[in-house]
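User: Is it possible to get a 3D structure for a protein together with its bound compound? The compound here is flavin mononucleotide. I've pasted both below.
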Amino acid sequence: MVPVSSFLKSVLSLPNHPAFSCGIISSFRITSCRSTFKQSPVRQQLFNMASTSNMNIAYPWAKSPIIAAAPMIKLAGPSLVAAVTKVGGIGFLAGGFDVTDLEKNIQETVDLISAEGRSIEHEDDVVPFGVGFINWGGDLATILRAFEKFVPAAVWFFAPCQLSDLKTWTERIREKTGGKTKVWIQIGSVSEAVCVAKESRPDVLVIQGADAGGHGLRKSAGIISLLPEIRDALESAGMSDVPLIAAGGIVDGRGLAAAQVLGASGVAMGTRFLAAKESTIAKGYQDEILRSNDGGVNTVRSTVYDRVRGILNWPEKYDGRGLINQSFWDAESGMSDDENRKLYKEAIAAGDDGWGPQGRLTTYAGTGVGLITKVESAETIIKSVLQDAAEVIKQTAEGSQL
Ligand SMILES: Cc1cc2nc3c(=O)[nH]c(=O)nc-3n(C[C@H](O)[C@H](O)[C@H](O)COP(=O)(O)O)c2cc1C
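Assistant: Yes, that's possible. Here is the predicted structure of the complex:
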């Protein structure tokens, strides 16, 4: 049995714990068994269940546990989002950092959902899906204008220039929609989670682990340790009621079951939806998602996949995980960015042949890529992930000997 004091020390890494550096905890007292219970996994599960039921109220069409389709620039468009909503997931349109087409894309998604003639019970003026923004580039004024016509059920924020920007964004969105739009914020470390929870009071925190495809923190941990550490840190800071959604390397029912056990109310998947019938993805890209395996070996975190496309304004602390290709190897062997970019443009002209290990086109994907072997509808993906997770949890519980 670990003494309470050393247990707390290991969880909080005093005095450098983020809850201290953000000024959330100024003093604390160790009170024997209360502290042990405070950190107990059983208690965490109770918080998890409470958070999950709040999510059911906020998104009445969504099934529990939550499956969210991450906003992926150019890839998560109206068809994917509408398909995800229809089957009880929470789809996020990718607003990214160029929000020019935002209103048009929301309208198209609404039309697709309505065309099915399905009635989606929600407040009349709230559309049953979310929109994701990359804060360092998104134009808040344009976004607020679009929200005059449509009120999305949720927004998803990611990658601000500085964390404090999220507070302004959160407040302005809440003001605009009278709190009808819930605020999801994707973060990737314990310190970010605690600071963001304290300053911005999001409705949901999306915890992005190191295995995630696309952009993420250069310095990051896998979801298996990151999520429970964040859960503990939030609890210590008195903010245990924020629902957590796990992201990064989760592609199937086993991943969802694991996330639930870690204390998440659900998952956000990006890479898995690259193989959805409804994603707006080039065939060459999607073929690579199906072909690739062994994600720890065949993907890499790098900034080269942005540099070759001339995207140079991501804040310093981010890079992106993608399948390894020739752009990466050439950069490693010293090729200049100018030369690499020139070759990238030539690869675009090659169309679907521009992808692949000898190709050059950016192929963002997470380490779970090897578990994805076929293209399926969003409906099949969501139903199978939910069903398999429930089965895994049931079997695991039956197999446990207490
Ligand atoms: C191709 C691709 C594009 C992405 N684009 C975005 C984006 O535009 N905005 C964002 O917040 N996250 C983006 N992400 C990251 C996701 O939000 C999420 O963290 C990630 O997909 C989770 O890991 P997974 O890909 O292993 O499921 C992207 C991920 C991928 C794979």
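The first helix runs from residue 4 to 12. The mean pLDDT is 88.
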